[in-house]
Design brief:
globular; 109 residues; mainly alpha; single chain
Length: 109
């Protein structure tokens, strides 16, 4: 990117950098191991980390629909609201899907 001065490749959703970012974040979240699992926050973080692969899969679909929901906002509000909507709906849908026996294996790692 520094040599070619083409910064669009850095944020291209199908680009190499986004692929590496996504895999790195997935591995980081999935490998969270907390020593104190009696803590309520620790249980929540462990539960969210188990759903991270499902969120990675479903966020593309939800992001498409979220764009239509926040249309017309200024750019900063658009990004913040769209991010919140995508994260909340992705985790909620994966949590619901993880309760279905056949789908549970696909959503949780």
């Amino acid at each position: 990117t520094q040599i070619t001065k083409e910064y669009n490749n850095t944020y291209d959703i199908l680009g190499m950098f986004v692929f590496v970012y996504s895999i790195s974040l997935f591995v980081l979240i999935n490998d969270i191991k907390l020593s104190n699992t009696d803590n309520k926050a620790s249980k929540i973080i462990c539960g969210l980390s188990k759903l991270s692969f499902g969120v990675y899969i479903t966020h593309i679909i939800i992001n498409t629909f979220a764009g239509a929901l926040v249309q017309g906002l200024n750019p900063v509000a658009h990004i913040c609201v769209r991010f919140a909507v995508v994260v909340i709906l992705s985790f909620a849908s994966c949590h619901i899907l993880s309760k279905i026996p056949g789908v549970k294996k696909l959503i949780k790692m």
